[in-house]
Hints:
Layout: H1 3-9, H2 35-42, H3 57-70, E1 74-78, H4 81-90, E2 98-102, H5 107-119, E3 123-127, H6 133-139, E4 144-150, H7 162-171, E5 176-179, H8 184-187, E6 197-201, E7 215-219, H9 232-235, H10 246-249, H11 254-267, H12 273-283, H13 286-305, E8 310-314, H14 324-330, E9 338-343, H15 346-356, E10 361-362, E11 372-374, H16 386-391, E12 398-402, H17 408-420
Parallel strand pairs: 2-3, 2-4, 4-5, 5-6, 10-11
Antiparallel strand pairs: 1-7, 6-7, 8-9, 9-12, 11-12
Helix pairs in contact: 1-3, 3-12, 15-17
Bound molecules: pyridoxal-5'-phosphate (PLP).
The site of pyridoxal-5'-phosphate (PLP) has 16 residues, from helix 4 and helix 5.
Amino acid sequence: MHIDTICVQGSYEPKSGEPRVIPIVQSTTYKYESSDAMGDLFDLKTNGYFYSRLQNPTCDYAAAKIAMLEGGVAGMLTGSGQAANFYAVFNIAQAGDHVVSSAAIYGGTFNLFNVTMRKLGIDFTFVSPFATKEEIQAAIRPNTKCIFGETISNPSLDIMDIETFAQVAHENGIPLIMDNTFATPINCRPFAFGCDIVTHSTTKYMEGHASTIGGAIVDSGNFDWMQNDKFPGLTTPDESYHGLTYAKDFGKAAYITKATVQLMRDLGSVQAPQNAFLLNVGLESLHLRMARHCENARKVAEYLKNNDKITWVKCAMLEGDDQYDRAKKYMPDGTCGVVSFGIKGGRKAATAFMDSLKLAAIVTHVADARTCCLHPASTTHRQLSDKELEECGVTPDLIRFSCGIENAEDIIADIQQALDKI
Ligand SMILES: *Cc1c(COP(=O)(O)O)cnc(C)c1O
């Protein structure tokens, strides 16, 4: 099946007389004929549903569709993108371990790693998304358990060289985990370039309409956990499951099974079936929406580039952009709908411009059907001085502009009338 067809029909195949659309299974629990039948489920001897904190059919259909879109073997949903990234790393790293991460990642993920997961005893080293093989290798320690990065970083829009990071990871016997939220599998399939595990904030393009928070994790099934002794959680018996060894007993589904039956069991960041239903409705048009998001971003970036009130524009789909070649290699059909740019007059002009926008709304959200924008220096990053802003790649004049799926002429007309006022 082509990826467009998977978007519409992937994973759910109703039998004769069953609902055509994925049903919302609004039930916490599932009935069994005997205690023994249920006991087998608790022992993971048979597959089935028993409590919706662990698994729910609606969530499983959406997760399986995302796994198909990514070309992976198994997937799971989480309550948010934050939970997805936490589970993805915590599933293979524990107190005393170390992780190498790209420095160009979503602010929430940076905080999760740099503050909260450090409190759990996991250490992090941050490297540039443009680091050479040697520089990445220099950050690796004997206790490093994975490398993490974003295919297109939010908000700095850097495109990671997936193959280089994957090579270093594999030479050290560890997996590469990538957050593919901004590109989505429509534009980039990281497994084809050696990435092992993909995460998503489904809150963004996947659900696509800014109505539900959610996350997903997908395993490529390609990483061999048994190749070394770095992953005892997968390769030695789990006493909380009567001595099961995930990598032996679940084969290619080992990583997702462990994340489900251990982390979801104990931490419980589930996605609600109602939200999974809405996520699946979003997935059905993801291929159409991504094409329009990219087309609009390209047109908006072209317009901005030729406007003398604009000092700079960042969009890797623009010829001449410093990441144009990398974007062509990893996401030849387009990157995403987000463009960033600077306005003459810095911070003051940026806020004056944004306050004059009519169609584009000022919101913290990004990557949905409605055009929206954010001025990080006066909102998400307002506690930082201008000097600190420069250091984390967010200049005081930077506007993050997320092109929706409206008509590009209307988006550009809105930008035009707001620029005319400054
Ligand atoms: C928004 C976002 C997250 C966090 O996702 P939530 O669903 O808001 O928890 C993680 N990574 C990236 C790249 C994001 O854009």
